[in-house]
Amino acid sequence: MKMAFTIKAAFTVMLAVVWPITGATAAGKWKSYVDPSLISEIALRDGDLYMATTGGLVTYDVAAGTFEQYTNTIGLPSNFLTCLLFDREARLWVGTERSGIARLDGAPGAWVVTPLSSTFHGLSDDRITDIAAWGDTLVYATQNGAGLIVEDFPGPRFYERDGLPSNKVRAVLPDGDRVWLATDKGVVYLDKFGFIRSPTDTLFAGYSLARTDTALWVGTDRGVARLDDGATEWSFTQLDSELRPVFSLAFDGERLWAGSRARIFRNDGSGWTQTAIFNFYAKYGPLNNTICEVRALQPMPGGAAYIGAGDPNTNRRGVNLLYFDGTQVGDIPFNGIPQNEIKRLGFDVDESLWIATAGFGVAKLTPSGEWFAYNAAAGDTKLSSPYNLSLLADSQGSKWFARSRYPAEAPLTPLDELQDQMDTDRGNDQWTYHQVGEGGGDGLGSLRNLGAAEDPAGNRWFLSDEDQQNAPGWWGINILSRDKSAWRQVNPTSTDPSGHLLGMKAGNVFDVAFAADGVAYMALKSFGVQRWTTGGYDTDDLFDFSGDTWETIARVGAPGGISSTAFVLSVAVRSDGVVWIGTDEGLYRYDRGFLNYIPADRGFGVGLLGTEVNDLVLDRGENLWVATNLGLNRIARDNSNDISSFTTPTAWQTQLNLFFPPSAVSPIVHEDCERLSLHPSKDILYIATLNGLCELDLQSLEEGESDISGLYLYPNPIRTSRGDSNLKIGDINSEVLIEVFTVEGELVHRQTASRSGESVWDFTTESGFVAASGIYVVRISGNGTVITKTVSLVR
Fold first, then answer.
1. Which of 175, 483, 551, 587 is 20 to 30 Å from the Cα of 496, by its Cα?
2. For residues 584 and 523, what is the distance between their CA atoms, to the nearest angstrom?
3. At 101, which CATH number?
4. What are phi and psi of 144, to 5 degrees?
5. Comparing C-alpha atoms, which of 179, 163, 155 is closest to residue 9?
6. HSE-up of 534 (CA within 13 Å, CB side)?
7. Run of H or E residues at 281
8. Rg (alpha carbons) of the chain, rounded to whole number
9. CA distance to 295, 345, 545, per residue, from 613 (Å)
């Protein structure tokens, strides 16, 4: 069913803007690790399940029982997908949480991705909640209105001013010559003439929609509502004795399915029956079964169904893919990264990468690529707490985990030590729990750890915050000797053997960097940066405070110092003594007594992507890598004005496109970068973000990728009637030769191209005539490789 001419005529064509985001681009080789356990929608096609998740697009081969995950490294504008559908041409469309809509042409593993956004293409909003096919037209719902996509481009948009009860549209459902729209304040429909109408005077919040043979069903916050064909009044039904919200609905031809909190319901015409899935919430830790939502339902033959669920308030963690066989529910784990919000990183002696998450314990990525998790809340480990802001994998094979807080009355140990024997067998793990006051010397004193580091001699430094200083030892630094025989507490009350205070000015230590000859630089959150000259890192020197000196090199609020409103968050020191200082208001460079400020770039000169500098790491060439709240920056070793930028499509199109070129867009999993870690033997940088982990091959930045196998041409098909004026090329970073031929082999056009987004044909021939409609063969040559592609031109 085509849309009526009334709506199509109101549509103004807008040309698509496509940026390249692939696994190997001018921005280097990237790899993403994103947790796909929170599933928002499931679709069945050709024996495979396609899932919109908070870890990208995931497919599940039902027969083989295998998963494939596709993230922003294939070009998706975001990894956080909310909905999906296949159109009549078998193309896949996905909606994202805050990055608009993307169309995927081709086949899995070889998709060409075309994004659509509000900024560049006119979507009503980029926060997509649902998408559906209405004949050849698509209808989408957002957090701020709804709209149509006509002939692949956004068309009319609809808001409260057009008759919607609310701009927050949660679901859409095509139904013959109209489309139902469920908002948080009422359910209405859009007719074929583009008018929004209400079937009755009753308005209520709707979460989901479904159609059976004779009625429309709506999931509401108190059960289901039903509108029979020809009826003028809604009827409401509770699913059981309690009022329950219904987040998903599906009809399999025999049964109506409903997903609520921690339950699924089925109705075959004789009433509602329910199945609880509480045990899976307990299995995956701090998921709250009172609010965890069943968002996705895909019925299968014989009364079975696949289910997706998750707690929206628990750091984007779901319960993996669930399968209901008609009697009971089982789970199908993805076996990947355990959670998206990553707080700390550290490399083990076997080069395993350890991560600490924001609520699901810790995990390691083994050198073979396997993830292995320790989730304290799930009861499968002896880890004290799932919340760890200290993570240290030391040079002796011990892993150290510490809670961010430890009140005196809590029954948990403040510091856990794990010897995991470098394998994935929990049976041979050795756990040691370090209590306050134990361990020799001063004893362990810190109960509020913020971070940890190992100095060049193998001593372990645990950093603490003074915001909860119930005792002097609960702040500053706690140092454990390499042989684990003694502790030293270092804070503003510590004294040397003669009884004099050491000179430490504050106890909220957020970071530490080690220089040669026993010199340590400490980032003190609200004070500044101090240099502690210890005399050496050997325990005898380090623990003997005689002759130690303390010098403030950068003071918060001092004239010529750090901004008075800034917090110091990170510090790094180069071999030549240059000290880099990260704050929540920008970056500072200290060199021989001079402090220079590098702010975020907002059109006034060279600068960073974001204002908040969360972490700093020097690579082997001593280039500085800067983790900010809006992406990753690289500052060249010998030129502080040479700054490379890596951000996400969303951050670029909404906040940064006025100040940074499109080349700043990269496959980084999220713009809010929390921590950085350099691989111990390879030139690979790991970036922990608010929503996932990624790795960047630094060598690929130096070499420059010249593979042209992944390039693509767009738009294809070409329709001049909708405004297509040029054929463009995507995913190249070196010069190629473009030759366009007719199917008979006649040369039509010839030129070179060297950058993504460049026009490679204006649809004219070598003689200057307008090229006719038809199929054309495009040959692309470069870097010793020749590939051919076909495009169709329709006038």
1. 483
2. 12
3. 2.130.10.10
4. -145, 70
5. 155
6. 24
7. helix 278-283
8. 29
9. 36, 16, 32
Q: Is residue 163 part of a domain?
A: yes
Q: Which of left, alpha, beta for 748 (phi over 0: left; psi -120 to 50: alpha)?
A: alpha
Q: Are 531 and 509 in contact (CB under 8 A)?
A: no
Considering only CA atoms, which of 444, 452, 496 is closest in space to residue 471? 444
Q: What's the pTM value of the predicted model, to 2 decimals? A: 0.85
Checking if the pLDDT of 80 tops 80, the result is yes
CATH number for the domain harbouring residue 739: 2.60.40.3080
Residue 596 belongs to a domain: no
Q: Which whole-number Å values give the CA distances from 615 to 554, 608, 670, in the listed order?
A: 17, 13, 15
Strand, coil or helix: 720: helix
Query: Looking at residues 598-613, what average pLDDT do you find?
Result: 91
The Cα 72–Cα 57 span in angstroms is 9
Grouping H, G, I as helix, E, B as strand and the rest as coil, residue 761 is: strand
Q: Which two tokens stand for residue 66?
A: 């295998």
Residue 294 amino acid letter: V
Query: Taking every pair of C-alpha atoms in the chain, what is the biggest distance, in angstroms?
Result: 94
- Is 219 within 8 Å of 207 (Cβ atoms)? yes
For residue 678, the cross-strand partners are 685
Report CA-CA distances (Å) from 562 to 531, 583, 589.
Answer: 16, 9, 11
> Does some domain include residue 139?
yes
3-state per-residue secondary structure call for 491-556 = CCCCECCCCCECCCCCCCEEEEEEEHHHEEEEEECCCEEEEEECCCCCHHHHCCCCCCEEEEEEEE
Across residues 664-668, what is the average pLDDT?
A: 90
Pairing of strands 718-719, 785-794: parallel
Give domain status of residue 96, yes or no. yes
Supply the mean pLDDT for the chain.
Answer: 88
CA dihedral over 633, 639, 641, 642, signed as positive or negative: negative
Domain that holds residue 36: 5-198
Give pLDDT, residue 19.
34
Q: How far is CA 315 from CA 40, 51, 548, 631, in A?
A: 15, 19, 44, 20
Specify which residues 197 forms β-bridges with. 189
Closest residue by Cα to residue 40 from 87, 85, 70, 99: 85
Residue where a domain stops, chosen among 137, 163, 198: 198
- Picking from 155, 181, 198, the residue at the C-terminal end of a domain is 198
Dihedral angle of Cα 538, 542, 546, 549, to the nearest 10 degrees? 120
Smallest CA-to-CA distance from 689 within 623, 614, 617 is with: 614
Contacts of 586 (CB under 8 A, 6+ apart): 563, 566, 597, 598, 599, 600, 607, 608, 611, 613
Q: 65-74, 111-120, 503-512, 700-709: which has the minimum mean pLDDT? A: 700-709
**SS3 state at 5:** helix
**pLDDT reported for residue 18:** 33
- Do 176 and 4 contact (CB within 8 A), yes or no? no
Query: What are the E-state strand segments in 143-239?
Result: 145-150, 153-158, 169-175, 178-183, 186-191, 196-197, 208-211, 215-220, 223-228, 235-237
Quote the number of domains for the chain: 2
Residue 538: both structure tokens together: 């050997």
Q: Determine the Cα–Cα distance for residues 65 and 306; give it in Å rounded to an integer.
A: 13
19-62: pLDDT as tens digits: 333 333 335 789 999 999 999 999 999 999 999 999 999 999 99
